[in-house]
Design goal:
This protein is of the alpha/beta class. The chain contains 16 helices and 14 strands.
Length: 383
């Protein structure tokens, strides 16, 4: 491959599992670990370093790394020095681009000003805090344990120690969240010293604590109309505050979109390090074994941690291109769409769901109302 290769580094540990979460993360009780998660930091990072060596032997690209993303789980539970070892290995093996973007996700309760300064000192230059909501009762429904006041402290500390790019993640559509609650969350978020906001509609995933509560009737998910109203309110208020949407669920100040996530939406190449991490290289997808114990066993035995892989067909590549690119403001070239789909797309154009200016310029892009039914429009495009 000749294209640049980004890296995702999975940290599969949390102090406790949030009720809505179905990510590949593990708590001390789930791992049957007697110690705290910091005690596994060095050993786990040693395994990741070995996977980096595997990546180096498998990838022949001479391009420097453009973006790195530490996700999880809760990456800020790791020792900063251990995260620094990952960065040192990646730079030694692949090299860093001059303007490399290195992001870390953070729980506001797991950082101090000193820890943030240490993260900045090892080269991490973008940080994303899990805020979710400013309403304590909504956080309680989501099983989030952080104090909303800690988000204010953490974002300010981050800017004070040199992070120029600071983001918060929000979730809307939680049980018990009113329009007024959501507006208060929006107002709290845009008052922070941040450059980026992600806002996601709550999805109730099967197998989670929240799904069980919904099934038992203990909590009620707001209807789709209210969730759509919350999206429209968010876009309006974010825009008025100087944040521009650049992907369905993401808004940024000028020059501050997350380049790592854009790489995903543009079907670029990336390598996912750690248990359950997914990778994509030139149309081939592969993913690692999910459980940390299985990952450790494979890494330490010198065998690949990859569980399975698939080579995408041209049809799959095309469907994925449409699915991802339509999420961004410029959309996709009309000429890349089968002509047979034009009549139904013209109906969406007439109804105001597709941007007429983009259409005239030869592109297919969503309006604000179109963003609300993006999945439906995609189904019409993919033959």
């Amino acid at each position: 491959m000749s294209a640049p290769l980004s890296f995702y580094v999975h940290i599969p540990y949390c102090l406790r599992r949030c009720g809505y979460c179905d990510f590949n993360t593990y708590t001390p009780s789930e791992l049957k670990s007697g110690g705290d998660l910091a005690s596994v930091s060095t050993g786990y990072i040693d395994q990741v370093l070995k996977e980096i060596e595997l990546a180096r032997s498998a990838v022949k690209s001479s391009e420097a790394i453009p973006t790195i993303f530490f996700g999880g789980g809760t990456p800020t539970l790791m020792e900063v020095a251990d995260l620094g070892r990952v960065l040192e290995s990646l730079e030694r093996n692949f090299g860093f681009s001059k303007d490399i973007e290195i992001t870390i996700e953070a729980n506001p309760d797991t950082v101090t000003k000193e820890k943030l300064a240490a993260l900045r000192a090892i080269g991490i230059n973008r940080i994303s805090f899990g805020m979710q909501s400013a309403a304590p009762h909504v956080l309680a429904v989501l099983d989030r344990t952080h104090n909303p006041e800690n988000v204010i402290k953490a974002t300010n500390w981050a800017r004070e120690v040199g992070f120029e790019e600071v983001s918060v993640d929000l979730i809307y559509g939680s049980p018990g969240e009113s329009i007024a609650n959501w507006e208060a969350t929006i107002d709290a978020a845009i008052s922070l010293p941040i450059t980026h906001i992600s806002a996601y509609a709550l999805i109730v995933e099967s197998g989670t604590k929240l799904a069980a509560q919904v099934k038992r009737g203990e909590v009620i998910i707001p209807d789709d109309d209210q969730t759509a109203d919350k999206y429209l309110l968010a876009d309006k208020k974010f825009s008025e505050a100087g944040f521009t949407w650049y992907e369905l669920s993401n808004w940024a100040k000028p020059g501050s979109p997350c380049r790592h996530n854009i790489a995903y939406w543009e079907s670029a190449n990336w390598w996912g390090l750690g248990p359950g991490a997914h990778s994509h290289l030139d149309g081939v997808r592969f993913w690692n074994v999910k459980h940390p114990a299985a990952y450790k066993e494979r890494i330490e035995s010198g065998t690949t941690p990859v569980q399975e892989s698939e080579t995408l067909t041209e049809s799959q590549k095309e469907s994925e291109r449409i699915l991802l690119a339509i999420r961004m403001p410029l959309g996709i070239p009309k000429e890349s769409i089968d002509n047979s789909r034009y009549p139904v797309l013209e109906e969406y154009l007439a109804s105001g769901h597709l941007d007429s200016t983009l259409w005239e310029s030869g592109r297919l892009g969503l309006t604000l109302s179109g963003r609300l039914i993006a999945d439906r429009i995609v189904q019409e495009i993919i033959v």
